[in-house]
């Protein structure tokens, strides 16, 4: 250490030198040596950089290096993230995962093997043939199930999600589509015809009532007015013959 030690340091240093940088840190800061070429410079940080872990002592807090295969660590013997090419398992970095585990290339961890899981079978469907449920005696019925857990890379693959089997039913005749369509068309025409008939009857009734009203109005206009009957009392009044 260079003998020129200063108390007026910057960057969190409690004591420092021009040659070695920080020699000690302010409270709660971590002291770490950074290599610059052939020389190491002391710096004080609030948290340790990647590849280091922090240890606290009564006199100084230090950053120590993790193992060579460890990118970040909690202590020297407990890694939290491994360098490329290694898989993390229980705080250790391994090139190959133990038996019963598989390497997860996404998280770079050793994880448990996950096998496929399927739900229970659904009830068998109605017996059909070519999409129809009539017009045959022998057909097929199916049932299905869903995948509730997909497997990991080394897990057991998923089973089939559908099954089919032959079935026998009592033959029943299918209703012809054309005949059914014709019946529906006839019913529609009949309904329209009935509606049209009722509409025509209502129109005729309104026309007849309008014609009768107009006839009465014309008769009232053409019929002569009745004369007022003479007043018999005036006709029988005595005539003044004094003159």
From TrEMBL:
<dbReference type="GO" id="GO:2000052">
    <property type="term" value="P:positive regulation of non-canonical Wnt signaling pathway"/>
</dbReference>
<dbReference type="InterPro" id="IPR000884">
    <property type="entry name" value="TSP1_rpt"/>
</dbReference>
<dbReference type="InterPro" id="IPR036383">
    <property type="entry name" value="TSP1_rpt_sf"/>
</dbReference>
<dbReference type="InterPro" id="IPR006212">
    <property type="entry name" value="Furin_repeat"/>
</dbReference>
<comment type="similarity">
    <text>Belongs to the R-spondin family.</text>
</comment>
<dbReference type="InterPro" id="IPR043601">
    <property type="entry name" value="Rspo_Fu-CRD_dom"/>
</dbReference>
<keyword id="KW-0358">Heparin-binding</keyword>
<keyword id="KW-0879">Wnt signaling pathway</keyword>
<dbReference type="InterPro" id="IPR009030">
    <property type="entry name" value="Growth_fac_rcpt_cys_sf"/>
</dbReference>
<feature type="compositionally biased region" description="Basic and acidic residues">
    <location>
        <begin position="175"/>
        <end position="219"/>
    </location>
</feature>
<keyword id="KW-0325">Glycoprotein</keyword>
<dbReference type="GO" id="GO:0005576">
    <property type="term" value="C:extracellular region"/>
</dbReference>
<keyword id="KW-0677">Repeat</keyword>
<dbReference type="InterPro" id="IPR044004">
    <property type="entry name" value="TSP1_spondin_dom"/>
</dbReference>
<dbReference type="InterPro" id="IPR051514">
    <property type="entry name" value="R-spondin"/>
</dbReference>
<keyword id="KW-0716">Sensory transduction</keyword>
<dbReference type="GO" id="GO:0005102">
    <property type="term" value="F:signaling receptor binding"/>
</dbReference>
<keyword id="KW-0964">Secreted</keyword>
<dbReference type="GO" id="GO:0008201">
    <property type="term" value="F:heparin binding"/>
</dbReference>
<keyword id="KW-1015">Disulfide bond</keyword>
<comment type="function">
    <text>Activator of the canonical Wnt signaling pathway by acting as a ligand for LGR4-6 receptors, which acts as a key regulator of angiogenesis. Upon binding to LGR4-6 (LGR4, LGR5 or LGR6), LGR4-6 associate with phosphorylated LRP6 and frizzled receptors that are activated by extracellular Wnt receptors, triggering the canonical Wnt signaling pathway to increase expression of target genes. Also regulates the canonical Wnt/beta-catenin-dependent pathway and non-canonical Wnt signaling by acting as an inhibitor of ZNRF3, an important regulator of the Wnt signaling pathway.</text>
</comment>
<dbReference type="GO" id="GO:0016055">
    <property type="term" value="P:Wnt signaling pathway"/>
</dbReference>
<dbReference type="Pfam" id="PF15913">
    <property type="entry name" value="Furin-like_2"/>
</dbReference>
<feature type="domain" description="Spondin-like TSP1">
    <location>
        <begin position="116"/>
        <end position="170"/>
    </location>
</feature>
<protein>
    <recommendedName>
        <fullName>R-spondin-3</fullName>
    </recommendedName>
</protein>
<feature type="domain" description="R-spondin Fu-CRD">
    <location>
        <begin position="11"/>
        <end position="110"/>
    </location>
</feature>
<dbReference type="Pfam" id="PF19028">
    <property type="entry name" value="TSP1_spondin"/>
</dbReference>
<comment type="subunit">
    <text>Interacts with the extracellular domain of FZD8 and LRP6. It however does not form a ternary complex with FZD8 and LRP6. Interacts with WNT1. Binds heparin. Interacts with LGR4, LGR5 and LGR6.</text>
</comment>
<feature type="region of interest" description="Disordered">
    <location>
        <begin position="169"/>
        <end position="243"/>
    </location>
</feature>
<keyword id="KW-0732">Signal</keyword>
């Amino acid at each position: 250490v260079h003998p020129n030690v200063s108390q007026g340091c910057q960057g969190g240093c409690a004591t420092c030198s021009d040659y070695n940088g920080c020699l000690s840190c302010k409270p709660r800061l971590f002291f770490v040596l950074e290599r610059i070429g052939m020389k190491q410079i002391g710096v004080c940080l609030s948290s340790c950089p990647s590849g280091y872990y922090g240890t606290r002592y009564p006199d100084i807090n230090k950053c120590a290096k993790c193992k060579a295969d460890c990118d970040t660590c909690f202590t020297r013997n407990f890694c939290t993230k491994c360098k490329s090419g290694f898989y993390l398992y229980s705080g250790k970095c391994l090139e190959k995962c133990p038996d019963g585990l598989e390497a997860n290339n996404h998280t770079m961890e050793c994880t448990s093997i996950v096998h496929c899981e399927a739900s229970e079978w659904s009830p068998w469907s109605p017996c059909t043939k070519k999409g129809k449920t009539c017009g045959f005696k022998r057909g097929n019925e199916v049932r299905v199930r869903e995948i509730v857990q997909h497997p990991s890379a080394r897990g057991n693959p998923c089973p089939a999600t559908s099954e089919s089997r032959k079935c026998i039913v009592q033959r029943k005749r299918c209703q012809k589509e054309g005949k059914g369509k014709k019946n529906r068309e006839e019913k529609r025409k009949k309904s329209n015809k009935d509606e049209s008939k009722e509409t025509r009857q209502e129109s005729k009734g309104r026309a007849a009532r309008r014609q009768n009203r107009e006839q009465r109005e014309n008769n009232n206009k053409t019929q002569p007015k009745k004369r007022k009957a003479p007043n018999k009392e005036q006709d029988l009044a005595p005539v003044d013959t004094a003159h």
